[in-house]
Amino acid sequence: MTIAEQLPPGIARGAAGTASFGGVDLAALAQAYGTPLLAFDGELFDQSVAAFRSAFGPQTDISYAAKAFLCIALARRVASRGLTLDVCSLGELRTAQAAAFPADGLRFHGCGKYDAELEAALAAGVGRIVVDNEEELERVECAAARLRRRAPILLRVNTGIEAHTHEMVRTAGESSKFGMLPPRALAAALRAAASGNLHVHGLHSHIGSQIYEPRFFSDALEPLFELAAALHGEGVAVSELVAGGGFAVRYAPDHEAPPSPADLAGRLLAALQTGARSAGVPVPQLGIEPGRALVGEAGLSLYRVLSVKNHGSKRFAIVDGSIADNPRPALYGSYHHALLAGRRSAARERETTVCGRSCEADLLVTCPLAEDLQAGDLLAICTTGAYTYSMASNYNRFAKPPVVLVESGRHHLWVRRERDDETLRYDVDT
Ligand code: LLP
């Protein structure tokens, strides 16, 4: 079987040769909603949630990282599946509120929160604010005093664990802007514990994203336990330790399998017990924040080929999407597997560079595709559920695609297509 014939999860090929996703024929989907579009397979999402829940058990706080992809319908589903939600902006907070997400299940993140966000988060009654730095701690305290609330906080620790992943998505170590190095975190936690306006629940670490090696996550708990022991010695209880997100997904059927939720849970839950024992502290509650691992495989971008051209030995297919709706390949050099979606081809395969239509060299992917690929064909670019729609822009004043839920052979719109004239909506024409 060639790589072009291997199908990522959720995708099947029917007798007529067209591919389906979530049981929905992709040619019919393109017909119904136009292209480009992002299909989101609700069942794949539910399966990932269930795998994490059964591996980590009911005691672990599983907080979906909304930055990977959020819309009101997904926020509702996240709540109904018993997860909490990590939000990091007023927009994400408003989306959660529009979905009537239980406020105490919201964790407010971000390394540069401004006062209006802190006040909105406190007024909403979010369950935790994850404080990134000492200046922010002071501002949280002031905001809490203004609102006469006690702010429930976690302190973000930069554990120094430099996981093997793309440097753009590494979030610990001295070259990373995030969190506080342990000595500063200790001072901040002691200061916070002495404040009547703050309630320190615990410590937080997030070391990066798309990490394949589970030991990095458990290694990051060690410095957290050292801090917990020091705080315990000062009479400050650390009842929660959050290990962050960053669990890898597979971007092509022939890539190495990432660690399963069971592998991850095995390591992290064991590290929680041994860490607490050697630190001499009560076992804290574990928190994790998967984003990509819950939604990555659940997304598929569907494009129509606009033209196919040969430049010498190189073949290009230009599709009706671009860097604007699919920025990860250009930003991180990431690979997203592509396949011919609207028909089966018996033709040989040929290395093809799939490009967007923007005024950039926006190469989406280079992979083998049928020699007879032609304008009008449908191409699916897979595993685009995470950081694709959420990072989309209006570059070239392209309108954003719709997001369509596909599930058990049915489909309906989650986010409608942006209209071309909406790309002008902020212009003030004087
Ligand atoms: N928790 C915190 C505090 C985070 O900053 C992030 C992601 C997560 C959890 C979820 O990480 P995940 O499980 O999704 O890896 N745009 C990049 C990824 C940036 C991740 C930012 N923070 C990409 O497309 O690869």
Strand content: 15-25%
Q: Specify the biggest β-sheet.
A: 9 strands, mixed
Radius of gyration: 23 Å
N- to C-terminal separation?
A: 61 Å
Query: Helicity level, as a percent range?
Result: 25-40%
Give me the number of helical elements.
11
CATH class of the largest domain: Alpha Beta
Q: Strand tally, please? A: 20
Mean pLDDT: 95
List all distinct small molecules, including ions and cofactors, that are bound in this structure: ligand LLP
Structural class: alpha/beta
Q: By CATH's scheme, which homologous superfamily of the largest domain applies?
A: Alanine racemase
CATH architecture of the largest domain: Alpha-Beta Barrel
Give me the CATH fold name of the largest domain.
Answer: TIM Barrel
Gross morphology is globular
The parts where pLDDT drops under 50 for at least 5 residues are none
Tally of separate domains: 2
Describe the structure.
By secondary structure, the chain is an alpha/beta fold. The model has no long low-confidence stretch (mean pLDDT 95). The protein has 11 helices and 20 strands. The protein folds into 2 domains: 3-34 and 298-424, Beta Barrel (Lyase, Ornithine Decarboxylase, Chain A, domain 1); 42-292, Alanine racemase (TIM Barrel, Alpha-Beta Barrel). The strands form 3 sheets. Strands 4, 13, 14, 15, 16, 17, 18, 19 and 20 form a 9-stranded mixed sheet that branches. Strands 5-6-7-8-9-10-11-12 form an 8-stranded parallel barrel, surrounded by 8 helices. Helix content is 29%, strand content 24%. The site of ligand LLP has 22 residues, from helix 10 and helix 11.
